[in-house]
């Protein structure tokens, strides 16, 4: 009975269970295709994303321009896959930022009683702001740039991770194996890394996947509002913002970057949902 | 204090603040553990025996009292100084499942204990782990496996090997067999007794099962609602329990002979809330001998001969004494 609830058991069959879930597999497949297209964009893109061709402005999708062209005659397909690089870069960087700070804050808050209240209050206060509003405020304050966007979104999503890590740490801290480590005289930092953090890998992974998706969406939102990276770099958000003015004549300008956002966010959510279900003992029965 | 006392706990008190008031989980508990002996700490759930055990290792900081280990008051040590003492005092846990980190292999679990106090590496470390595993009755192959691959009894053996890895002088065994199947309990108890004898260990054995304690322990401390009711040599307590609570506990323990019968002292009701304990003697609300005076004063632990102490104002009453003799 107790063996079934052991995280190690869950771990052992985790990969094999994951692969048998259809939604997870579809999600992984879509995000993999998007990642390959984005990473290999310089080799795949038929044109430079910034090549102007006034003669070919607002051309509908065709054999030459698969996704059509924009108001300056730039190739929408090339721009869409180049924009994917930025989205993935922002997503990954935000997850890394939130992981470093969120895990540290959560562990410290969960482990040291005296620091718990101040840290937990700050986390709650930050989570009270709507994500995108907080990001807008931070970017507006720091000035728009790639680094600013990553830092701003990192700050927005750090509390999400910190909260989960804190909650789990509070539980694990009281378990007998942590007490055993203390009885042995294991230094506190080692107890935190070896006994607590190691048992938090799964929830961090789940939350990290969701944060990746939210960050990509938020980056598109910021770019759409003109608060993203510099306008020369194509992003899905700026492409949609530009296409908005031509939506009556050239809806492909908004369609394709829009579909790219939907697919990447949806696929990450599918993967994250799959992870979460697999790790939740209450939901594992119906797998 | 005689020199062969390894651990002396004096006036140990632990209070937990809660929303509804202060809980006195352990209230002025005193006992000595002589070198090389096993002292049993018994009582119902909620009697504070586990908290008292944790406090003696400073896994929980007590509010008051002295914990004198080998001449040093552990409570006066700083965190750092205490760490140096940690290897001399170890603990075996009740739950063999949550007491082993599921993410670590057995050799990592035992290896951590080894490394903490003296650096061992490579073959020497592997040999020592294999030796420890064999000592607790496990195959040395177990080293490369994870805790979930073992049964409850085997996991308890791993926990014991971890405690032994630092070569402690004193071990707190917190109900080490109560979570195990009955068939496995005896094996683990035999192992503990065997290890105690061969390593000359001194132990505080926390239990609620009196027959286990009788089999294993040299002395017994009986706790109820955070206080010591009676303590003394096992033989004496089992032959002639003087405190009405001890009498009730003993009468509830099954006898090995199925034909034998004993007079049952059935306790009514539950243990009172430690938030609001009865005045005077905490046991009086469930005691069949309680008189009005029991509510007036907290009965002191009185010495009644050869290390035997009882906290009951009616302990010398013939009625109470004769009840003890019928068990």
TrEMBL record, chain A:
The chain crosses the membrane at residues 24-45, 88-112, 132-157, 255-275. GO terms for cellular component: plasma membrane. The keyword Transmembrane helix applies. It is a multi-pass membrane protein. It holds the Pfam family BPD_transp_1. It is found in: Cell membrane. Its main location: membrane. GO terms for biological process: transmembrane transport. InterPro entries: BP-dependent_transpt_permease, MetI-like, MetI-like_sf, OppC_N. SUPFAM superfamilies: MetI-like. Residues 84-272 form the ABC transmembrane type-1 domain. Belongs to the binding-protein-dependent transport system permease family. This is Peptide/nickel transport system permease protein. It comes from Microvirga subterranea.
From TrEMBL, chain B:
It is a peripheral membrane protein. It holds the Pfam family oligo_HPY. Signal peptide: none annotated. GO terms for cellular component: plasma membrane. GO terms for molecular function: ATP binding; ATP hydrolysis activity. It is found in: Cell inner membrane. InterPro entries: AAA+_ATPase, ABC_transp_ATP-bind, ABC_transporter-like_ATP-bd, ABC_transporter-like_CS, Oligopep_ABC_C, P-loop_NTPase. It comes from the Bacteria. The keyword ATP-binding applies. Gene3D superfamilies: P-loop containing nucleotide triphosphate hydrolases. Residues 7-250 form the ABC transporter domain. Keywords: ATP-binding, Nucleotide-binding, Transport. The keyword Transport applies. SUPFAM superfamilies: P-loop containing nucleoside triphosphate hydrolases (SSF52540). One of its GO terms (biological process) is transmembrane transport. Belongs to the ABC transporter superfamily. This is Peptide/nickel transport system ATP-binding protein. The lineage of its organism: Bacteria, Pseudomonadati, Pseudomonadota, Alphaproteobacteria, Hyphomicrobiales.
């Amino acid at each position: 009975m107790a063996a079934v609830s052991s995280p190690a058991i869950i771990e052992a069959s985790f990969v094999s269970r994951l692969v048998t879930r259809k939604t997870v597999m579809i999600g992984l497949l879509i995000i993999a295709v998007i990642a390959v297209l984005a990473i290999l964009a310089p080799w795949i893109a038929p044109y430079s994303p910034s090549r102007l061709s006034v003669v070919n402005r607002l051309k509908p999708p065709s054999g030459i321009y698969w996704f059509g062209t924009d108001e300056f005659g730039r190739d929408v397909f090339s721009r869409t896959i180049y924009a994917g690089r930025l989205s993935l870069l922002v997503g990954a960087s935000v997850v890394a930022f939130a992981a470093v700070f969120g895990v540290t804050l959560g562990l410290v808050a969960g482990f040291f009683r005296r620091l718990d209240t101040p840290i937990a209050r700050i986390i709650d206060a930050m989570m009270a702001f709507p994500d995108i509003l907080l990001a807008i405020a931070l970017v507006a304050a720091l000035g728009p740039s790639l680094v600013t966007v990553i830092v701003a979104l990192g700050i927005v999503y750090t509390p999400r991770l910190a909260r989960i890590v804190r909650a789990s740490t509070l539980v694990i801290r009281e378990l007998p194996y942590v007490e055993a480590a203390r009885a042995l005289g294991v230094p506190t930092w080692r107890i935190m890394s070896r006994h607590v953090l190691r048992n938090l890998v799964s929830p961090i992974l789940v939350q990290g996947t969701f944060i990746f998706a939210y960050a990509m969406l938020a980056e598109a939102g910021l770019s759409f509002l003109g608060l993203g990276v510099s306008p020369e770099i194509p992003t899905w958000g700026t492409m949609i913002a530009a296409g908005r003015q031509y939506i009556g004549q050239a809806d492909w300008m908004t369609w394709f970057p829009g579909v790219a956002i939907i697919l990447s966010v949806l696929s990450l959510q599918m993967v994250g949902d799959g992870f979460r279900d697999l790790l939740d003992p209450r939901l594992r029965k119906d797998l | 204090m005689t020199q062969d006392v390894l651990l002396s706990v004096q006036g140990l008190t632990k209070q937990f603040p809660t929303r509804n008031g202060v809980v006195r989980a352990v209230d002025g508990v005193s006992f000595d553990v002589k070198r090389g002996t096993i002292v049993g700490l018994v009582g119902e759930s909620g009697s504070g025996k586990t908290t008292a055990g944790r406090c003696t290792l400073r896994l929980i900081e007590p509010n008051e009292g002295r914990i004198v280990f080998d001449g040093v008051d552990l409570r006066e040590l700083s965190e750092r100084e205490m760490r140096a003492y940690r290897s001399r005092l170890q603990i075996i846990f009740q739950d063999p499942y949550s007491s082993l980190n599921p993410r670590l292999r057995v050799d990592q679990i035992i290896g951590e204990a080894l490394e903490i106090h003296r650096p061992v590496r490579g073959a020497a470390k592997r040999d020592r782990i294999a030796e420890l595993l064999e000592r607790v009755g496990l195959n040395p192959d177990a080293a490369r496996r994870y805790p979930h691959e073992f049964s409850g009894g085997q996991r308890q053996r791993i926990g014991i090997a971890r405690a032994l890895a630092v070569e402690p002088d004193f071990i707190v065994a917190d109900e080490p067999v109560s979570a195990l199947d009955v068939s496995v309990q005896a094996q683990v108890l035999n192992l503990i007794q065997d290890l105690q004898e061969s390593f000359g260990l001194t132990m505080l054995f926390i239990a609620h099962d009196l027959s286990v304690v009788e089999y294993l322990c040299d002395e017994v401390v009986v706790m109820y609602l955070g206080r010591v009711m009676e303590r003394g040599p096992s033989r004496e307590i089992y032959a002639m329990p003087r405190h009405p609570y001890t009498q009730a506990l003993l009468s509830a323990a099954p006898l090995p002979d199925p034909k034998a019968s004993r007079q049952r002292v059935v306790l009514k009701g539950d243990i009172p809330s430690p938030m609001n304990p009865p005045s005077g003697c905490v046991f009086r609300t469930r005691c069949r001998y309680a008189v009005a005076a029991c509510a007036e004063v907290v009965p002191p632990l009185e010495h009644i001969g050869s290390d035997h102490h009882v906290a009951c104002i009616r302990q010398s009453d013939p009625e109470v004494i004769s009840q003890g003799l019928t068990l």
